[in-house]
Amino acid sequence: MRFLLFVLLFLSFAYSLGLVLANNTEVGVNLLFSQAPTMNLGLLLILCLILGIVIGMLLALLLFRVLQNKWEISRLQKANANLQEQLTQANVVIDRQATAPSVEEAVYGSTATNVHDNHAAQEEAATLTKQKRD
User: pLDDT digit of tens for each residue in the chain (134 aa)?
Assistant: First the structure.
């Protein structure tokens, strides 16, 4: 990898040097609101090329971050929808368990609960009667 990078840097340096030597005329640069000093045309081309590469890389990084954030948001929304579905399923199970008959009701029917309630009411009445006597 380092060798490939070294070769790439050498080729870009050689191209830049050839560009500067082939275009050695002096050119004045007008920057709309100001005037830059005259410089070699090859050097101006290289500076513009480097500036374009740097700006392009920065924009690509920014675009990649935006896309990465969108992907992350999409993934989290899918996970949220999945968790919401699991929550609704769990609530349905809880509701079923809450409305399901108890073991006594399932075995003895609804009369067992009534008998139990009647027995509790009789005990309470007996307690009240004792309290009135005392």
Answer: 888 988 988 898 888 888 888 888 898 888 788 888 888 888 888 888 889 999 999 999 999 999 999 999 999 999 999 999 999 999 999 988 888 777 666 666 654 445 556 666 667 666 666 665 65
CA angle 116, 119, 123 (to 5 degrees): 140
What does the domain layout of the chain look like in residue ranges? 2-100
Q: Model-level pTM?
A: 0.49
List phi, psi (to 5°) of 41. Answer: -65, -40
Beta-strand ranges (E) seen in the chain are 26-30, 35-40
